[in-house]
Design a protein that fits this description.
CATH class of the largest domain: Alpha Beta
Oligomer: single chain
Number of helices: 4
Structural class: alpha+beta
Strand order of the largest sheet: 1-2-3-4-5-6
Shape: flat
Number of domains: 2
CATH architecture of the largest domain: 2-Layer Sandwich
Low-confidence stretches: 1-16
Order of helices and strands: EEHHEEEEHEEEH
Distance between the termini: 30 Å
């Protein structure tokens, strides 16, 4: 479950990860954040709140499930919850993070969700990576066609089909994907990752889909003027 996204290598110095773990009769819980994410006080405080919210949700849902199982006479299965934050990259201006959250609530299998954030070092604030771009429409205009072509080919490869015509899972818009900001040299953002989580672009068995693309001059036009200096064209 603890993967490193393709194209987003993490420096060894950033991999120290303080973890909080708990096990009860109702659930197992783990929350992991890299040391780089706990250095800025504001980000550390937000992660503490996020961990508390996540744990509270897990405990409440597991307790309710146990009561419901006893009431209806079916076996209760211990819940499992893990959230692991990773450093995608760190530049002089930004700390880019991704989180992988796994939940098992007693069904046939668990589920995994991906999210991301960037920490603005100069202003000590947390941002959605999309906030650095002009609009969802601008991102769709620049990346949408390339994403759909890549996804169609990748789905056909995984499904061992000549082509995939799937009305249940049409190509999702960029706004439906998780956006990761990466860097090849930790000086500027020069590549972008697009991730379609479970059930976003295909059935559960297909897994997630991730495409990494370099920052191009066209993509730079979709970046807000205030953030132009933190990006550069990828090689």
């Amino acid at each position: 479950m603890h993967r490193v996204w393709r194209g987003f290598a993490i420096g060894a110095a950033l991999l120290g990860a303080p973890a909080v773990a708990e096990k009860t009769a109702d659930y197992t819980f783990a929350y992991v954040a890299p040391s780089a994410a706990t250095r800025p006080p504001g980000l550390r405080q937000w992660l503490d709140r996020d961990r508390a919210r996540f744990r509270r949700t897990v405990a409440t849902e597991a307790a309710a499930d146990r009561v419901e199982a006893a009431k209806d006479g079916y076996p209760f299965h211990q819940h499992e919850a893990t959230r692991t934050w990773k450093v995608v990259t760190e530049t002089p201006f930004l700390l880019s993070l991704s989180a992988e959250t796994y939940r098992y609530t007693g069904g046939a299998h668990g589920g995994t969700a991906i999210e991301s954030l960037v920490w603005d070092k100069a202003r000590s604030r947390r941002l959605d990576p999309r906030a650095l771009f002009v609009s969802a429409e601008a991102l769709q205009r620049v990346l949408g066609a390339r994403w759909c072509v890549w996804l169609s080919r990748e789905r056909a490869r995984r499904l061992q089909a000549d082509e995939v015509d799937d009305p249940v899972f049409p190509c999702p818009k960029v706004a439906e994907l998780t956006l990761l900001l990466g860097s090849s040299d930790r000086r500027a953002i020069d590549r972008v990752g697009l991730i379609a989580g479970q059930y976003v672009a295909g059935a559960y068995a297909e897994g997630m889909y991730e495409m990494t693309v370099p920052v191009t001059p066209e993509l730079l036009t979709a970046v807000r003027p205030a953030w132009q200096e933190v990006f550069r064209v990828g090689r």
